[in-house]
Amino acid sequence: MSALRLPNPFSRGGHARKFSGILDEPDKYDKLSTRRLGGAAGRWRVALFLWSYEVHVEVQLFSRGWVRRAVLPVHLSSSTCFDPAHLASTAYNSSLANAPAYVDVHAGLAMPLGRDCYDFAATVPRHPLPGMVLAARTVFHTYWRHDLLPLGERQVALLHSILATQDRSATSVVLWTNAPSPSALTSLPVLRPLLDLYGDRLSVRTVDKRTLAHGTPMEGHALLDMADRQAWVDGDLVRILVLYALGGVWVDFDTIMTGRDVRVLGEHEWITQWDCYDKKYQPLNGAMMHFHRASPYLCEMLHVMSTSPPPARNSVDWGSRLYHKVWRSLVARGITPFKVLPYCFTDGVSCRLDNRLPDPFADPTKADRRWGPGRRDDVRTKVASVWAVHLHNRWDKTFPEGGWVDEMVLKPVEARVEQYRLE
């Protein structure tokens, strides 16, 4: 019996290629003219398709084993962080945390369309309302790895954008560093003028992770000394330890504040949405976050850190993935989770071309030609609605003169700095 022969779909010789151009007669075939006509027709069809349909393509690859092992399981924490007896023994201000809120910072939708996110941000009051129950003082914290890069103008711009625009009677900034002594920063010519101008509203402190971890689930843990060359793992740990010890608002140094009053967001404990794409396995970001001192949410994060495998270096295992893991564990246990600010509140650059804030470092002479009428006004109203712009490192970049960050953020901040000097 002869073997069954199946056609080879990859065979080139077994397929006769027939093509009829748009203008060709069926019985006439000219290879050269057909290629030309086919190419033109193909381009026309692609143009028509793109004019008729939106194309959304995002490709991410995840190991199925990693997803099954590290993402999907919900580990019910054995911590006592939310036990009433434990909370009573800490400095957590339950009255402040549980007070009725005037502002809802969670929209309930991803808001990827048009101006939705920015319009929602604009519904939040510009300043605290009478009756809001807020902390008497809001402390902003940030962290600089002294051994990686020298402090420069980008970092100074962030400090000015907080200290010159936020209520001077109710806010202050602590600049944390891994330098052995604060004098490594306070003696810098780039920072000295700010210390003189803002006085006790700006202080520099050396991070002592073992002292900060005292009384937390990470106390005495072997991983307290872990660090990497990106300052991701140790930076993620420092932000949680600092906020647990002191409370306040954390701001990563690769950020610039727009001048909106952050205190209006202080009724809730929150972190931020990563971007408008709502990443399936990495939806949360800690570049800005707000928690009260001794918050049980932070306690829970520290507990998960202390009981989980060590994080990979240069990873977000103690950042985005940790927050997501804790959020899922909380709701599985029936505990109201922390809030999540919409992406544009602090990271409007991370979205699609049609609705994101423009590239902060783009050449303004080229950008203006592309924007067209009304685009600059649209960007200006978006910037006025949000609280910060997260720059995602890019430390080799500077803000170009005449760009939208220069015109809409830096120059207004500089004007507030001059006003501050006169008051």
Automatic annotation (TrEMBL):
- Quote the cellular component terms of the Gene Ontology held in the record: membrane
Q: Name one GO molecular function term.
A: hexosyltransferase activity
Alphabetical GO biological process terms: glycosphingolipid biosynthetic process
In terms of Gene3D superfamilies, this protein maps to: 3.90.550.20
InterPro entries tied to this protein: Glycosyltransf_32, Nucleotide-diphossugar_trans
Superkingdom, natural source: Eukaryota
Provide the protein name: Glycosyltransferase family 32 protein
Look up and give the organism this protein is from: Rhodotorula graminis (strain WP1)
